[in-house]
C-alpha cells in the first residue's frame, strides 16, 4: 500500500468525497492495550508514511511545534532497564516498574515531542497541535492495518527520565504511540453521552 503522490505546494488538493470505509474506521477504531501489541509492526517505509500523514496536522502559524523519535525495541529495552533502576532509587511505588511493560512490548514506538515555546501563537495552541499529531498518527497507523496505544506514564513527567528519550529542556512528551498488531480483538469501551456534552445553538 502506498501513499498518493505528494501534491505540489499551492496546487489544488482533491475535494473530499464520501468514504464509507473511512466512516467505518472512525466508528470502530480502538486503542489496544500497549502490552498486547505484537508483531507485525510497521516496516521502515510504513513508519515513514505514517509520520508523513501524522505531520499533516493542523497547527496555527505553521510553527510545526513537534518532532518525532522512532524507538525500536532495543533502545526501549535499554531505557526501560534504566527507568526500572531509577524507579527503585526514587522510591516510586512498584507500579512504576510494572508499567514499563507498556513501554517495551510493541514492535515500534513513535515518541511525539511537543516543542511548544513562546512564539507568535499561544503555547496552548501549539500543544493542542501536538495532540492532533498523535491522533492523526493513530489514524494513519490504523489505515495501514496496525493497532496503536497512546501512553504517557510517569517517565513522561520525570525530569531525570526525559533525557533518556532525548527530550530536551523545555520540551514535553505529547505521547508514546506504540504500534503493532493486537493479540486479541479489541472490545468497545464506554463513550460519552453526547447529549450531556453537546449544545446546539441556532
Ligand atoms: C494524552 C494521553 C495520555 C495517555 N496516557 C496513558 C497512560 O499513561 N497509560 C494508559 O494506560 N493509558 C493512557 N492513555 C489512554 C489510552 O491511550 C487509552 O487506551 C485510549 O485513550 C483509549 O481510547 P480509544 O480506544 O478511543 O483510542 C492516554 C491517553 C491520552 C490521550
Describe this protein's structure.
This protein is of the alpha+beta class and 202 residues long. The protein has one domain (34-184): 3-Layer(aba) Sandwich (NADH Oxidase). It is 35% helix and 15% strand. The chain has helices spanning 20-28, 44-54, 73-89, 95-98, 100-104, 123-143, 194-197, and strands at 37-38, 66-71, 108-114, 147-151, 172-182. Strands 1, 2, 3, 4 and 5 form a 5-stranded antiparallel beta sheet that branches. Helix 2 packs across helix 6. It is globular. The mean pLDDT is 97. Residues 30-31, 149-153, 175, 189 line the site of flavin mononucleotide.
Quick overview:
With about 200 residues, the protein is of the alpha+beta class. It has seven helices and five strands; from the N terminus they run αβαβαααβαββα. α2 crosses α6.
Chain-averaged pLDDT? 97
Give a count of the beta strands, DSSP E runs of length 2 or more: 5
Number of H- or I-type helical stretches: 7
Q: Work out the strand percent.
A: 15-25%
Helix content: 25-40%
Shape: globular
- Cα separation of the termini: 44 Å
Q: Give, in order, the helices and strands.
A: HEHEHHHEHEEH
Query: In the CATH classification, which architecture applies?
Result: 3-Layer(aba) Sandwich
CATH hierarchy, class = Alpha Beta
In terms of quaternary structure, the protein is single chain
Q: Report the uncertain regions.
A: none
The figure for the number of domains is 1
What keyword list fits this structure?
single chain, 202 residues, alpha+beta, NADH Oxidase, 5-stranded antiparallel beta sheet, 7 helices, 5 strands, 35% helix, FMN, oxidoreductase activity, YdjA-like
